[in-house]
Specification:
mainly beta; 8% helix; ribonucleoprotein; Large ribosomal subunit protein bL28; Bacterial_rp_bL28
C-alpha cells in the first residue's frame, strides 16, 4: 500500500461491526495519487495524498 511522501499518510485498519456486533477486519485507503513533482529542480514521480496537493505542499512538474 502506498504512503504519502510528504505527510506519511497511508492505510488505516479497523473493524466492520455488524448489526449482531460481529467484528471483521476492514481497511480505509487514503486518497493517494502518483504525481510528477519537482524535487531539487528535477521532475520526479512521488505518491502524494490529495490533501497535500490541495494545500500546495508540493510543486507540480
Amino acid at each position: 500500500m502506498a504512503k504519502c511522501a510528504i505527510c506519511g499518510k497511508g492505510a488505516h485498519f479497523g473493524n466492520n461491526v455488524s448489526h449482531s456486533h460481529k467484528k471483521t477486519n476492514r481497511m480505509w485507503k487514503s486518497n493517494i495519487k502518483s504525481v510528477r513533482c519537482k524535487v531539487n529542480g528535477t521532475p520526479k514521480r512521488l505518491y502524494v495524498c490529495t490533501s497535500c496537493l490541495r494545500s500546495n505542499k508540493v510543486e507540480r512538474a
